[in-house]
Amino acid sequence: MGETDNVRTGVVFTLLMLCLTSNLLSVSHAIWLNLPASGTKCVSEEIQNNVVVLSDYVVISEDHTHPSPTISTKVTSPYGNNLHHRENVTHGQFAFTTNEAGNYLACFWVDGHHPGGGDVSVNLDWKTGIAAKDWESVARKEKIEGVELELRKLEGAVEAIHENLLYLKSREAEMRIVSEKTNGRVAWFSIMSLGICIMVSVLQLWHLKRFFQKKKLI
């Protein structure tokens, strides 16, 4: 009886872990952009260092009387490094591993020779971290499948969450240091301002006293 209960408990625990895995692995974003005929639309995400980013984009055209409009796209790192740049395309893909922590920016705009005019719809599938990993290749390489593969995904998701927590902790420490430095500078500025006000008041009193003494009023 005890062994049966243990088996049932193990099965329930495994199912709960698999459900949790499906929630944790949803680190992808499907974004629908409506690009104006003139102008640029951008999307950004704050990503830590050493994270895999994979994205696909495609122009969705409902006007079948004209050729599909073409767009241009540019992806830059937080320090302005160019990671991806394409012009006159209807679809594309970019993939990279982050070398800098910060906001990564992807911008899209319609090429000048858009025949139909009006807005252009673009579907962007943005994946980062564990969601960008090719699990089919991992399964073939390690010869795993089924529950074992899902547990492998869970392990990767837990590692990603742990890295994110460490990143947030480091950012919190950086922000705390900046806040403490700012508070210190504000305190010194307040003291200096108070000192200057006192000095100006003393000088004004001294000047008025000399003025009245010269006029023989005191």
From TrEMBL:
Query: What Pfam families has UniProt attached to this entry?
Result: EMP24_GP25L
Superkingdom of this protein's organism = Eukaryota
Keyword field: Membrane, Signal, Transmembrane, Transmembrane helix
PROSITE patterns for the chain: GOLD (PS50866)
Every copy of the GOLD domain together lies at 40-153
Q: Where in the cell is it found?
A: Membrane
- Specify where it is mainly localized: membrane
Q: InterPro entries, from UniProt? A: Emp24-like, GOLD_dom
TM segments?
Answer: 186-206
List, alphabetically, the GO terms of the cellular component aspect. Answer: membrane
User: Membrane topology for this entry?
Assistant: Single-pass type I membrane protein
The residue range of the signal peptide is 1-30
What PANTHER family has UniProt attached to this entry?
A: TRANSMEMBRANE EMP24 DOMAIN-CONTAINING PROTEIN
Q: Please state what the protein is called.
A: GOLD domain-containing protein
Q: Which organism is it from?
A: Davidia involucrata (Dove tree)
What lineage is on file? Eukaryota, Viridiplantae, Streptophyta, Embryophyta, Tracheophyta
